[in-house]
Amino acid sequence: MEYRLDKVSSTAVSVSVDCTAEEVGKAFDKAAKAIGKGMTLPGFRKDKVPAHVIKSRFASRVAADATELLADANLLLILKKENVRPLSPSQYRGTPAEEGKPFSFTAGFDVLPDIDLPDLSTLSVVVGDPKPTEDVLNAMLDQALRRLAQYVDVTDRKPQDNDLLTANVRGSIDGKALPGMTADNFRLQLLPVKPGAKTPEMDPIVRALNVGEEGRGTMICPDNYPDPTLRGREVLLEVKLLRIQQEVLPPVNDENAKLLGFKSSDELQQEVWQQAFTANLRQMQRDGKHTLMEEQLAKLDFPLPESLVQRFYREHQRDAVRYLKSQHADEATIKETLEHMEAESMEFARKKAKGHTFLLALADREGIVVTGKEAEAAVRAMTKGTGQNYDDIRKTVWETGMISSMQERMIADRALDHLYASARKIMAEAPALRPFSEIKQG
Predict the structure, then answer these.
(1) pLDDT, tens digit, for every residue of 396-440?
(2) Are residues 63 and 162 part of one domain?
(3) Are residues 77 and 192 located together in one domain of the fold?
(4) How many domains does the chain have?
(5) Are residues 204 and 320 in the same domain?
(6) What 3 state SS string does the chain have?
(7) Do 316 and 349 share a domain, yes or no?
(8) Could you tell me if residue 120 is inside a domain?
């Protein structure tokens, strides 16, 4: 076998491979043997079907398998020898191999560009204090008590803070209903609006209605709405209030704590504090990682592997389709929205590809890897609790090449964890807090 490796660009390489007739013959023999394993044909015992019979009766399949063997085995050797790690599956170009004849093929790969990676020992990031505030603790405690809450139907007044409402909602622009803003039997809870905070658009409408009444109002289509041509436009909201329920939360005491599975109200409050602290800590870490990534990427400019850009572009469009279908959008609306989103999807894809490329390059420098067993465990975790058959999912993941993408994403995640762990943490100033026991009493 002879080959030539050419650098097509800073993010792509091409490999040309020439195999001898002898190498091709061995590949055909190996393919025929694999196909014949366990096979039973009339006139032959199981596993005893001669190779020439397999080659004759299953010629196209043997040729396809032999071609795959030649390509996979030789490319693996070449990439290992040249220390090239492809980012995308090989793009095989060429006709199938023929037994007894030399075989040549080419394959293309995307690869990581050269990136001026930072010295991790010089990095720092400002993080918040994970200790929960009184508002957060009270909200989480209310959420725990909500399992014991009672809801009383109200018909003699308009909605008030903490009421649970049921309504039919229709959001439209120029008479056309908007997916995601139109729903029957929509349920929402009216939460108190904090001083200085923005009032939810539907609050003024529903607060003015009695059960059975209809009301109208407007809102501005949000910046994260799927169709970018509708963002910032005025949406007509038509609401019919169907039901008002008053939420009655029980007091915090030992008796109610025991109903929730705790020994005492102190233990309940301690668990709430711990959960709030853990949630804040995770959010602090997410924010810190995001800040570090944004700071590093702002300093860098490098070419992006096209396969990554296209992958994230397809994902962005696929997520939009999934959301629109969940909101019962028709096919014409979905098609129109995707066309409007095309430029935005590409911008999203390029930004995502830049971060992903940076993390993969960092992982490569720092020696961060994900083993086959770890990827296998991730596939198994995907099926846990879903009722899906693990073997079926595993087969799909491997046959479609998804396993390579999974390993790649796992490596990027570990690189991000490593980036954050290496940075010096600077704690932002935190407000003084009173003990939780003094915050809320039953």
Answers:
(1) 766 666 777 788 899 999 999 999 999 999 887 655 445 555 545
(2) no
(3) no
(4) 3
(5) no
(6) CEEEEEEEECCEEEEEEEECHHHHHHHHHHHHHHHHCCCCCCCCCCCCCCHHHHHHHCHHHHHHHHHHHHHHHHHHHHHHHHCCCCCCCCCCECCCCCCCCCEEEEEEEECCCCCCCCCHHHCEEEECCCCCCHHHHHHHHHHHHHHHCEEEECCCCCCCCCCEEEEEEEEEECCEEEEEEEEEEEEEECCCCCCCCCCCCCHHHHCCCCCCCEEEEEEECCCCCCCCCCCCCEEEEEEEEEEEEEEECCCCCHHHHHHCCCCCHHHHHHHHHHHHHHHHHHHHHHHHHHHHHHHHHHHCCCCCCHHHHHHHHHHHHHHHHHHHHHCCCCHHHHHHHHHHHHHHHHHHHHHHHHHHHHHHHHHHHHCCCCCHHHHHHHHHHHHCCCCCCHHHHHHHHHHCCHHHHHHHHHHHHHHHHHHHHHCEEEECCCCCCCCHHHCCCC
(7) yes
(8) no
